[in-house]
Design a protein that fits this description.
mainly alpha
């Protein structure tokens, strides 16, 4: 029996359904047709479960209702443990034969070969062979439980494989640096016109939610918030704020406000050896860590592009505070003629009248990338104005080419300036591939660092971000899932940013 609060939530959920009559149904929770309902129609705020599917399973279903909706014991949402007969190859294949592909005429002739491929996916995402999740120990009850969950998780992977035969290629670690994607994430998918990335994000999010269906409340409350913190931290870019960089002008030798690698090592201790958990848990963690891994690789690729000659980011070859202040003074006095002269002297290069006119129409678009909707004042300081102008001035900046990658997607511009010109406000940013948002933000911050004579800080922050990210991955690889989640959550709470603002204030 549902209470009034649950009935209100159910009514809210009903409004987002596309095909199903009721959100508490197998069709709503397991069908491909309701993929968008489960993943793209909103998020629940304030609790461990944010997606519609995991929210329903862990907040609105009791044990009896789970058995009713997830009728087969091979489903992770079904609380029954598979017996010794059910986990054998024959009964398992008989169950998998009931799962039909979306595309007509594409029935599988060899389910055994698909299972072998899915076991390779398990190894790729968890670092462990499938058999390590079904191996025997002295604890027979726990062995039976782990074996049951391993088979249920394998069946879940199989269902998604039937939805899209090459689904796991989307989550594979790219072999070429140009294919490192920043678009793989659990929420807020990019609105590509052809929906290729949007659908890919939906499937990724849906798979992660499905893998939680067999988790207990305690497991959900520990694991999911930690995974969300991890994703959100590296969806952002960790740079010293413009205020900190401005402070550097008067304190050119100071580095004390940055975290050190030793601090990260001490707060993120590694375990003694690789650990396995239940397969559903390790797959959920593995997908999140893969998102982080690919994102770090993507950020590193952009960093390497920006410092190369190919990116044509202006430098200050004979920087001095006097030259910088001359340009700032011209900006403050709104003296365009003096600004042009002093800017060319600072950068030791010349720009045409057309280039100046173009940048004055364009540089403020960086506001919507650099600033936050939560900022009370989104206007640029004089130094930020200068950095924005330099970041996008000239034919050189317009000639840069770098292509955002999404698996199997071919139709998108490779011109960063094209996407910058399409930004009008914070809302329009959601239509821009994250590859280009990162490109412009990092380009802007590189220019800011050069303007205060501290490009070394830009490089150090990038190095620290990479080091921290891979340290977090190693923590999950060497601890049991829930100890790792506690360690990482405590670290994020203690270290919300790689810049130590307390040290900065001192």
């Amino acid at each position: 029996m549902t209470n009034l609060r649950d009935e209100i939530w159910i009514d809210v959920l009903k409004e987002n359904l596309k095909h199903s009559a009721h959100p508490l149904s197998a069709h709503a929770l397991l069908s491909f047709e309701e993929l968008e309902f489960r993943t793209l129609s909103g998020r629940w705020l304030g609790g461990a479960c944010r997606g519609h599917a995991e929210f329903i399973v862990h907040n609105l279903l009791d044990v009896a209702k789970k058995r009713e909706i997830f009728g087969s014991p091979y489903e992770l949402g079904n609380p029954d443990i598979l017996d010794k007969k059910a986990v054998r190859q024959g009964p398992l294949i008989a169950h998998l034969e009931t799962i039909r592909p979306l595309a007509g005429g594409s029935e599988l002739n060899n389910i055994e070969s698909v299972l072998k491929a899915l076991k390779r996916v398990v190894k790729d995402l968890t670092g462990h062979e499938f058999r390590s999740f079904t191996s025997s120990t002295s604890n027979l009850v726990q062995d039976s439980l782990n074996y049951s969950y391993a088979i249920k998780a394998l069946c879940t992977l199989y269902r998604y494989r039937m939805w899209e035969p090459k689904i796991f290629n989307r989550f594979a670690k790219p072999k070429q640096s140009r294919n490192f994607s920043l678009e793989l994430r659990d929420a807020h998918p990019l609105h590509w016109k052809d929906d290729s990335a949007r659908n890919g994000v939906a499937i990724y999010s849906d798979l992660k939610q499905s893998l939680t269906f067999g988790m207990s409340k305690d497991e959900v409350n520990i694991l999911l918030p930690a995974m969300r913190q991890l994703s959100e931290r590296y969806a952002q870019s960790q740079f010293a704020s413009p205020q900190v960089l401005t402070w550097c002008l008067a304190n050119s030798e100071s580095n004390h406000f940055f975290r050190q690698k030793d601090d990260i090592i001490s707060l993120l201790p590694l375990g003694k050896s690789p650990r396995t958990n239940r397969l559903d848990i390790d797959l959920h963690i593995g997908l999140t860590l893969r998102e982080l891994d690919i994102r770090l690789l993507g950020k590193d690729a952009i960093n390497r592009l920006l410092i190369s000659d190919e990116a044509k980011v202006p430098t200050c070859p004979e920087w001095s505070s006097q030259k910088l202040m001359a340009v700032i003074c011209a900006i403050s006095k709104k003296n365009i003629s003096a600004f042009k002269v002093e800017l060319q002297r600072l950068l030791d290069c010349e720009f045409s009248e057309n280039e100046f006119e173009a940048v004055l129409d364009r540089y403020l678009k960086l506001t919507w990338i650099v600033k936050s909707p939560l900022d009370k004042d989104v206007s640029f300081t004089h130094l930020e104005t200068l950095a924005a102008i330099i970041a996008c001035i000239g034919e050189a900046a317009e000639s840069v080419r770098t292509k955002a990658y999404w698996y199997a997607k071919k139709t998108s511009s490779d011109n960063p300036m094209f996407y910058l010109d399409n930004i009008e406000n914070f809302t329009s940013v959601s239509r821009i591939p994250e590859h280009y948002l990162e490109y412009w933000f990092r380009r802007f911050m590189l220019v800011m660092s050069r303007l205060v004579g501290r490009e070394d800080l830009w490089h150090y922050q990038n190095t620290l971000e990479q080091f921290e990210g891979y340290r977090v991955i190693d923590v999950f690889r060497t601890h049991d899932a829930f100890n790792a989640a506690r360690i990482v959550t405590a670290y994020f709470d203690k270290t919300p940013n790689l810049v130590d603002m307390q040290a900065f204030k001192q």
